[in-house]
Structures are given as structure tokens and as C-alpha cells.
Amino acid sequence: MTAQGYELAVDVRGLRKRYGGVTAVDGIDLGIRRGEVFGLLGPNGAGKSTTVEILQGNRDRDAGEVSVLGSDPATGTRAWRSRVGIVWQDESAPAELTVRETVRHFAGYYPRPRDPEEVIALVGLEAKADSRIKALSGGQRRRLDVALGVIGGPDLLLLDEPTTGFDPAARRQFWSLIRALADDGTTILLTTHYLEEAEALVHRLAIVAKGRIVAEGEPGVLRERFGTEATVAWTEPDGTPRAERTGTPARTVTGLTHRFGGEIPGLTVSRPTLEDVYLRLTGQSQEETR
């Protein structure tokens, strides 16, 4: 399938899923282009993980049309499943096996796996190849999870909250890995609630709230579309800090320049961040995201 001239790896129309009286996914439309990194953002309970489970074929949908790599996940063959890799939040490999043993073992599940040694190198675990899994750090275990997700040579990789619990240094190391996979031609769907992560990795993203997509596009475009006001801040002559949100920051600064007769003490002009847009569209406060 194509949309606006792009071949789609994932094409979803009118996706719906309910659990009893709770609607988890409420009419989602989604198109992910081949070769791109696409972010699915939203608070807990927004429907992100359910959507990913449906795309992988692990959960039935109630309504809607879904095409993943040209097939319906609900009737996906073994050959189709070998083309889709996934890394869940709570992956767990046998603790007593070594990294090398584990990757080689999982390679046996696929008809045309990647070379295990190449994959171990790709995720940066060469130095730990003969270490038992139970001896790995949290970040190293997550790298192993990704190795198991890509050992089959997938065309599409689904990453569900992959850096939850990482410290900042480990998170940035993981980002380098995702960029390497993307450079290798893998289409990646990333669910996350880390806005900085989305800005660092994705080409396009969709923000999900209460089972619906409330915005979709490139991060910079969304900031421009939904973040219409800038914040102008300055310091009054008596030392009092002031700030004003305005859609015409240049006019505000000009007015302040005339009032101060020249230089404006403590002047800053800040544009809305992706986080500001996210909070506005999902109806969350800053405190709720921490």
C-alpha cells in the first residue's frame, strides 16, 4: 500500500479494541513508511501497547483494517512472523545461558537469521558474549533483548517502552543502537513516554490519548502547529521577574525595548517544546509525567 507516494510498512484504518466496558483503542488510523523510525507517544493506558500487540498478531482486534508488511497480522504465517521483531518492556532470557548461547539459540527459530556474532557486535555486547545473562547490567540485558528482536533479520522492529528504567547514560547508548538499526534499513515503531527520546530518534510520531490519535507528524511540525505561543521573560528594574505568553513575541520584545530605553534585563524568548505540545494534547500536567 502507498500513501502520498510512500510505501507503507504498517497501514491501519479504524482500529478498535475493547476490554469489557473499557475502550483501549478507539478508531486509530496509522501509516508507517518503510525505513522510518516512527514514535507512538502517550500516557499509561492510552492504548499504545495494545496497538503494538495487534500489529504483531498477539491480540485480536474488534474492528478495523490492519496491514503489516502487506499481510493481516491476525492471519500472519510463520514466514510473516519471522519478518517482525519485537522487544517488550519485560523481556526475560534464560539467566544461566551466556549471551552467545542465547543469541545462537534464538537464531534457530528463524528461516534466514542474521549471523549471531554480527548481531552481538551490533548491540555492543562483544565483550560480554561469554558472560551469563544473570551477570549483565540492566542496560546490557536490554541490549540483549534487542539482539533477540533483530536476530531474525526483521523488516519491522517493534520497541515497546525500550528504555524504561534506564539512567541517562544508558538511554543515550541505547539511542545509538536504534540509529544504527535504522541506518541498516530496519523500519522501527517505538512506543515511549520520554519526549526527549522521541525528539532524538523519530522521523514522525503520533500522540495517543484515550485510545485515539490526537496529533501526527514530524516533531518540529507539531511544535509549530500546536505550540502557537512563545514565552517572553525579563526582569523589572526592581528585580522582579516577569513572563508573558504571546503569539507575537517580536512585538512584545519591541515594546519592552522602548519601555526600557534599550537593553532588556534578563530577556529570554522560548518557544514551546514537544513536551509542552504533548502535555497540552494529552491533558496532563508536568507533575503527572514525572
TrEMBL record:
The keyword Transmembrane helix does not apply. The keyword Nucleotide-binding applies. Residues 10-235 form the ABC transporter domain. Its EC number is 7.6.2.2. Keywords: Antibiotic resistance, ATP-binding, Cell membrane, Membrane, Nucleotide-binding, Translocase, Transport. It is an enzyme of class 7 (translocase). GO terms for biological process: response to antibiotic. Its main location: membrane. It is a peripheral membrane protein. InterPro entries: AAA+_ATPase, ABC_transporter-like_ATP-bd, ABC_transporter-like_CS, ABC_transporter_ATP-binding, P-loop_NTPase. GO terms for molecular function: ABC-type xenobiotic transporter activity; ATP binding; ATP hydrolysis activity. It is found in: Cell membrane. GO terms for cellular component: plasma membrane. Belongs to the ABC transporter superfamily. Drug exporter-1 (DrugE1) (TC 3.A.1.105) family. This is ABC-type xenobiotic transporter. It comes from Streptomyces variegatus.
